[in-house]
Amino acid sequence: MTTLRFAPSPTGFLHLGNARTLLLNALMARKAGGRFMLRIDDTDAERVREEFVEAIREDLAWLGLAPAMEVRQSQRTALYEAAFRALGERVYPAYETEEELDRARRLARASGRPPVYDRSALKLTPEKRAAFEADGRRPHWRFRLSGGRVGWLDGVRGHHEIDLDSLSDPIIRRDDGTFLYVFTSVVDDADLGVTEIVRGEDHVANSAVQLDMFAALGAAPPALAHHNLLTSGDGDGLSKRQGSLSLRTLRGEGIEPLAVAAYATLIGSAEAVRPVDSLDELAGLVDLARLSRAPAKIDPEELAALSAKTVHRLDFHAAAPRLVGMGVAGGSGFWETVRGNLRTVAEAADWWRIATTDAAFSPPPDDDAPWLAEAAKLLPEEPWDDAVWKAWTGAVSAATGRKGKALFAPLRLALTGEAGGPELARLLPFIGRARALRRLTRDG
């Protein structure tokens, strides 16, 4: 079965760039009728926080994604231990401190050489290792790359190759015994049957290293695809630690989850960024081969506009639970009345308040007050429907001679306190005759 996964590290809130990776994997699985899993990469105990684990779950639920299963790396240590032992002589202990490694990298650059680890740990004698450990040094462990070129057919980049001799042997186990992502990810993907991985192009070098690890473990590697990255408007990368465009922030701003999904998926691709009505529809638009190779810049205003368009298409039954939660009644009739004028669903509550409560509006200009009082005398008796607005304004125009903007603008301002908004022919029945009289005359 086609199996894809999203593997976030819970060290901060997910941002729009993380959502791109999440959605491409989830939608590819949906398109193939396969399985999508959530793996929490929580081996970095110093930086992981449980609140971020819960936030990841909340973000997925908000986007409408329900993983087939969830696993946590912190609960899979025995599996990593077994795989570590299986690597045998392909792993070796190294004792350099971070300061020593940094100094070696700087010297290599100064000499015009690439800052690749020189495998000096392999030359240590047993006596030297014993001396290091007597001094209190504990080893970290590296995976010895096989060397030569490793290649794969990338779902975005086409055929791609990397020379393993240009890379350092990766550290796969810290000196405290904990394992690092580059290793645990391979073990998990092999164990869980992951068949495809879609991730950011910043992982291309990792992919070459991990393909070598799959081979060393005798495991079949998944198909790989590396998508272009999203950047802020000034071209900087997004960071969970900085909270850049976090999904939590977007949710708080009332941005529609389906708009976030469409934006994060379609930006930087040959598909036009546009509103969609469902994740199934969006899954049908995903084509990794049509992703650009260049980074894509996020425009918050474009996202907000896409969200507004998504609201304008939102079916009443989809909006109803949120409307009820905000105390908005009026059924589909009210929703369809105000929907086209909303930027966020939350703004429906503002129009419900305007329509159904005695909201305090600024008094009309003195010149309009007598005219509005005359218009109030011509208000038809209830019951009201969509036809009452035309009948009433026709009567007011005939009696006072006002037409066009001079007729409609003062009425709208008096009735709603706003210069623009939903079609009054549909909104007026929700206001009702008694409230309309009070607002026109400012009586009470």
Explain what the structure shows.
Helices cover 46% and strands 11% of the residues. The protein is an alpha/beta fold and 444 residues long. It has a domain at 369-441: Arc Repressor Mutant, subunit A (Orthogonal Bundle). The strands form 5 sheets. It has a 3-stranded parallel β-sheet, covered by helices on one side. Strand 9, helix 7 (204-217) and strand 10 form a beta-alpha-beta unit. Helix 1 packs across helix 9 (257-266), helix 9 (257-266) packs across helix 11 (300-312) and helix 12 (316-325) crosses helix 13 (331-338). The radius of gyration is 31 Å and the shape is elongated. The model has no long low-confidence stretch (mean pLDDT 94).
SSE topology:
Layout (H helix, E strand, L loop, with lengths): L2 E4 L9 H17 L2 E6 L9 H13 L6 E4 L4 H10 L4 E4 L3 H13 L15 H9 L5 E4 L5 E6 L3 E6 L7 E3 L7 H12 L3 E5 L3 H14 L5 E5 L2 E2 L15 H6 L4 H10 L12 H7 L10 E2 L2 H13 L3 H10 L5 H8 L8 H10 L12 H9 L10 H13 L3 H13 L7 H8 L1 H9 L3
Parallel strand pairs: 1-2, 2-3, 9-10, 11-12
Antiparallel strand pairs: 4-5, 5-8, 6-7
Named CATH architecture of the domain at 369-441: Orthogonal Bundle
Runs with pLDDT <50, length 5+? none
- Calculate the terminal CA-CA distance, rounded to whole Å: 69 Å
User: How would you characterize the largest beta sheet?
Assistant: 3 strands, parallel
Number of H/I helices: 19
What is the strand tally? 12
Morphology call:
elongated
CATH topology of the domain at 369-441: Arc Repressor Mutant, subunit A
Residue share in helix: 40-55%
Query: Radius of gyration, rounded?
Result: 31 Å
Q: Strand share of the residues?
A: 5-15%
Can you list the strand order of the major beta sheet?
Answer: 1-2-3
Please give the CATH class of the domain at 369-441: Mainly Alpha
